[in-house]
Design brief:
By secondary structure, the protein is of the alpha/beta class. The protein has a single domain (27-310), classed as Alkaline Phosphatase, subunit A (3-Layer(aba) Sandwich). It is 33% helix and 15% strand. Strands 1, 2, 3, 4, 5, 6, 7, 8 and 9 form a nine-stranded mixed β-sheet that branches. It starts with a helix and ends in an 18-residue tail after the last helix.
Length: 313
């Protein structure tokens, strides 16, 4: 009996100890998520020449991880796609900025747990309607722990209209230099805006411009003393576009076709592998889970899973 009691005591002690094991310490202190709005995978990493993303191909690919099997598994429109990233759940939500998400975002979770200030988490978007990502409906979270926002024309939010990505990037660098946010999400409206115009060359130029802006951000991260060696960057899309032969092709999106669902993911940071390609099937909600992992939050209320294949160890 004494032997059994001793064994049970040891098991209890081990169990108690395991409950208090410190979370893994990562080098990452800052997380930035960039959403290149609405290109098809076939015009980004799915094109073997990478001709429309030359900066990400030549300068960035050797320093991060590219996932060739990344998807939007929910509604393939702008607001639902972004909500999946920020909340970790796929939600059928109004796409016009008339409804806030049901669940709290990683901005809110981080700010409440880490006692962060509003100026340490930012939402900077070309599309005004994405201001809704700052809040949620859930009791205890609604109206609380919200990030600072700069969305749409003059940063005025819902109803102000879409602004040029060049102007959004000016605001991005102003925020980075002034506030050094720990958590930042950026939306670049092209190529989605250009695609809807129905002009193929304008759509491709939208991708090229986004590629250039993303490279400028990546270069800033690698040269700025605050961010260098301490920042994780995710580059993804909220949705793709119809494949040729489906509806009006690249002009639109919103169904379950491969063109709308198959999107891209590039991940770079001090805790991630370099020069790596993975085909582990993942989706937008997994960005949410991985962001929470890197930020060390205990709240893991998400349908996503941590993308362990990105990490060095």
């Amino acid at each position: 009996m004494k032997t059994i009691s001793y064994m049970l005591l040891c098991i209890a002690l081990v169990s108690c100890t395991s409950d208090h094991v410190a979370q893994k310490e990562y080098k990452t202190e800052y997380v930035i998520v960039v959403v290149m709005d609405g290109p098809r995978y076939s015009e980004t990493w799915g094109d073997s020449s990478h001709q429309y993303i030359p900066y990400m191909d030549s300068a960035m690919s050797s320093t991060g991880v590219i996932n060739t099997s990344f998807f939007n598994e929910g509604v393939t429109y702008t607001t639902p796609g972004h909500v999946a990233i920020t909340t970790g759940y796929y939600q059928s939500i109004d796409n016009g900025g008339n409804e806030i998400p049901q669940r709290p975002s990683f901005f809110q979770v981080w700010q409440r747990e880490k006692l962060g200030t509003k100026n340490e988490s930012w939402l900077v978007t070309s599309k005004d309607k994405l201001q809704v990502l700052a809040d949620c409906q859930e009791m205890g979270w609604n109206g609380q722990y919200m990030p600072s926002v700069n969305c749409g024309v003059n940063g005025a939010g819902v109803g102000s209209g879409y602004r040029e990505d060049s102007l959004t990037m000016i605001e991005v660098f102003n925020v980075l230099n002034t506030h050094q946010p720990k958590v930042l999400l950026i939306n670049l409206r092209d190529p989605d805006y250009s695609g809807h115009l129905g002009d193929w060359n304008t759509y491709l130029n939208g991708i090229r411009n986004s590629d250039k802006y993303i490279y400028q951000l990546w270069n800033y991260i690698n040269t700025n003393s605050t961010y260098k060696g301490k920042t994780t960057l995710f580059v993804t899309n909220d949705h793709g576009r119809h494949l040729d032969g489906i509806s009006n092709g690249f002009v639109s999106h919103g169904d379950n076709c491969e063109g709308c669902r198959h999107i891209s993911l590039y991940a770079f940071g001090p805790d991630f592998k370099q020069g790596t390609i993975t085909n582990v099937q993942r989706s937008l909600v997994d960005i949410h889970a991985t962001v929470l992992e890197l930020l060390g939050t205990k709240n893991r209320n998400t349908n996503g899973t941590v993308m362990k294949e990105l990490f060095v160890n």
